[in-house]
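In response to a reviewer's request, we include the raw inputs and outputs for one of the modeled complexes. The four entities were modeled together in a single run.
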Amino acid sequence: MRNAEKETVRSLELFSDMSDKHFEELLVGSFLQRFPASVILFSETDLTDFLHVLIDGQVELFASTNNREGTMTLIRPVATFVLASAITDGVYQLSARTLQSSQILMIPAQNIRAAMSEDRKFAERSVRELAHCYHGVVRAYKNMKLRTAVERLANYLLVQHRRQGESHALVLPVEKRVLASMLGMTPENLSRSFVTLKPYGVKVDGSEVSITKLKDLETLAKPSALIDNK
Amino acid sequence: MRNAEKETVRSLELFSDMSDKHFEELLVGSFLQRFPASVILFSETDLTDFLHVLIDGQVELFASTNNREGTMTLIRPVATFVLASAITDGVYQLSARTLQSSQILMIPAQNIRAAMSEDRKFAERSVRELAHCYHGVVRAYKNMKLRTAVERLANYLLVQHRRQGESHALVLPVEKRVLASMLGMTPENLSRSFVTLKPYGVKVDGSEVSITKLKDLETLAKPSALIDNK
DNA sequence: CGACGATTTGAATAGGATCAATGGGAGTGG
DNA sequence: CCACTCCCATTGATCCTATTCAAATCGTCG
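The model returned the following structure tokens for the whole complex.
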């Protein structure tokens, strides 16, 4: 593992005020690996061996039951994932697959649990990280429960618009198939939802989307700080 | 605050291995209060003043946006709620109302944050508690995303059946209106879903539900350990 | 008893899913 | 470089699920 990647990980809030000693101990038995796209990293029923850190690429966390599958969230670098599972020492609860070629650091879950009891700063950071993760899922859950498919899409576009610098055009960071699953609809329905948004100034060309009537789109989307911010 | 209640709270896993001194400090400025049914305890946009501990009664956590409202979860005694918000020191993110007359201990959120950095045992317990809460919402989110309304009801009934000792009859612990909202449907649709389950051995009489064909109901519900257990 | 809210039922509508078919790109192998 | 293939995306038709609106019934509580 090169210093560049090590520093990248080190500078994550979760690890930022850990002692050097503890950080080094954390990395014992860890390994950095590159995976091609479309690789299953783990299944939701696997026991949690590792905390994962996505250094580069893109990862989808999804869930399956009874032949149905749904995207729960997308991980973008640099970020950890499955911290909660690493702590509870049970199964992952979510499955993961790479959407692109991805570089991932895998830290043994037991190292995390050990660091938790040895390093109070790390424990504190973990608490905050988990609280954030918790609110993240709560937001996703609210989004799902309180909005229609078209509204979810409209709000998603507004968030991307903001994130990508409020420029005229934005680029969808994932395949539409995956976006559909993340927004809780079928690919067919996503296509139709885009058509529905046309009168609100949404033009789609492949993965490029332009928003020409921001106000109108916002009127439809009715964004909420408690669901869409952050 | 009487000793009985204090001991009840003290024995929660979250506080169980805190030092006595820290526990006493935690309670400084706390107060125990009884609220009648149907009282709003806080709104999702309020700043988080208190960690709440439900000693007795029942509380609904819900969310609103754009004139729509949905139940996110029900709290049953004895349990804490809004721990994540108390930690992040922002808004509650969820609103709360009593469903019954309820006795609630309110602990200043800043005490929680202080205890977090002073008491490592408490920090560790908080980490575990939050990891559990996180998985709880993930389960709810999966339930919502991967199942139809009838399936959600069927699985809900199976969980209640198990919790209430697998007896012939179970009692719905909440009004059907609230149950409907929790399961992500309208009250009308809940009524119809119960009718749909009749051929699967589900008989309803007010808040009493009997299950006569457990196997059939399970075949329909297809319960999943990763969604329904715990 | 009377009022109000909860629940149920019916009818109509809307939101989404499924099935089927077509067009389009990206990658593969010749 | 081109043809082929495969998967993604779109569109149409239809079906199913769930919401909405309306009305009737039931219970509870003052």
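As requested, we also summarize the result in words. Chain A touches chain B through 47 residues (CB under 8 Å). The longest strand of chain A covers residues 68-75.
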